[in-house]
Design a protein that fits this description.
Elements lengths: L8 E6 L3 H11 L4 E7 L3 H10 L4 E3 L2 H7 L4 E4 L6 H10 L3 E5 L6 H14 L3 E4 L6 H11 L6 E9 L14 H4 L3 H16 L5 E9 L27 E8 L4 E7 L9 E8 L3 E7 L8 E5 L1 E2 L2 E2 L11 H14 L2 H4 L5 H19 L3 E2 L1
Parallel strand pairs: 1-2, 1-4, 2-3, 4-5, 5-6, 7-10
Antiparallel strand pairs: 7-11, 8-9, 8-16, 9-10, 11-12, 12-13, 14-15
Helix pairs in contact: 1-9, 4-5, 5-11, 8-11
Length: about 375
């Protein structure tokens, strides 16, 4: 087995919003990693971040950043419609890529990204940070150790009461975002649910979407836009999907940007197994580092419910560190990081939207 590459890794970050700043902080904390380039359109913020992280090169245009050269890896933290063109351009230059989720607007674009990564022999990772939460890790250990027996039903949700990212922005335009909350935050619920269940194959989906509050200019919370009209909100604000899994199990996914419920965001997971069940509830805005996790089981006919020990997870820090580790692992490690897992999520989300449009079950 070849020795891991320990030379300094030169990275760039495309995107200077919240997600891009998470990547900057995570790279900055790693030894042997140097942030050498930054790309973002807002000059004042770009200049501020360039100074804060002592980044030698900053650009308004991502194409100029790639053409400038001197990059081993980049993070792509921009609107979804730009994930594919930026990632493919970087991969074709031999640059490893960490993209924010979802992988792309749809599975067709996602497949093109995976194909580019495989052709280039480079890493393509996608930032699913919630699977790296400490409470999800603790529940994963319980399930993998057989503590629940065979899981046969699960439900995963990310629900907001008034959390449309920005009314009338790219988020609410399907041509730019690919979809609403199902594509934006529902993909997180789908990812950590499949991760917890051991990556079962999804056989069929039956989904429904609703657009009830956004078209009325409601559901934007503090980011409400008075200019929002029906034509400014063209995606769903709530979605649910019922997934049939190989082996007979089922999974329910729910995602909302706007629905009448408790004020705080809710990230949750419920699972029922042949020997036990579990519930995880993470509530707040932002989410606390540790949620409420309980395991339900019995012993000798008596209740033996308990609360597993949980350490806080590291979210984007862990995403970036795992990416850097994969890049440094050499070609053998790269083959396991080609974006195919994120592509599978995109294929499932596409099937859900097809099911909702056609009002029928769709087989994968």
């Amino acid at each position: 087995m070849p020795e891991p590459d320990t030379k300094e890794l030169r990275v760039g970050v495309v995107g200077i919003g919240w997600a891009g700043q998470q990547h900057l902080m995570a790279y900055n904390a790693l030894e042997g990693v140097r942030i050498v380039a930054l790309a973002g359109m807002e000059q004042e913020l770009r200049d501020s971040l360039q100074a804060e992280y002592s980044i030698p090169n900053a650009f308004a245009d991502w194409k100029e950043m790639l053409e400038h050269g001197g990059l081993d890896a980049i993070s792509v933290a921009v609107p979804t419609f730009l994930h594919a063109p930026i990632s493919i351009a970087a991969l074709e230059r031999g640059i490893h890529v960490l993209s924010e989720k979802p992988i792309a607007r749809n599975a067709i674009e996602g497949q093109a990204m995976v194909d580019a990564a495989r052709k280039a022999g480079r890493v393509l990772d996608v930032a699913f940070n919630h699977r790296r939460r400490g409470d999800i890790g603790a529940l994963k250990e319980v399930i993998d150790d057989g503590g629940l027996g065979r899981p046969y039903y699960a439900k995963a949700s990310w629900l907001r009461r008034s959390g449309i990212p920005t009314l009338g922005s790219w988020f609410t335009n399907p041509e730019l975002a690919g979809g609403g909350p199902l594509a934006d935050i529902g993909v997180h619920a789908l990812d950590y649910a499949l991760h917890l269940l051991g990556e079962p194959k999804v056989l069929a989906v039956s989904a429904a979407t609703h657009s009830e509050l956004g078209p009325q200019g409601r559901g934007g919370g503090s980011r409400y836009s008075a200019q929002a009209t029906s034509h400014a909100f063209e995606v769903e604000d709530f979605a649910s999907a019922f997934l049939r899994l190989e082996g007979g199990g089922t999974l329910l996914i729910e995602a909302s940007w706007a629905t009448y419920r408790e004020t705080d965001d809710l990230l949750d997971f419920t699972v029922y197994g042949t020997d036990g069940g579990a519930e995880l509830k993470v509530q707040g805005a932002p989410f606390p580092p540790v949620g409420q996790l309980r395991v339900f089981t019995d012993k000798d006919g008596e209740s033996a419910d308990y609360v597993p020990p949980v350490l806080p997870g590291r979210a984007h820090d862990a995403v970036v560190e795992d990416f850097v580790t994969a890049v440094r692992g050499g070609p053998e490690a790269w083959r396991g990081h080609d974006g195919s897992l994120a592509l599978y999520r995109a294929q499932i989300i596409d099937a859900c939207y097809q099911s909702a449009r056609e009002q029928r079950e769709v087989r994968l």
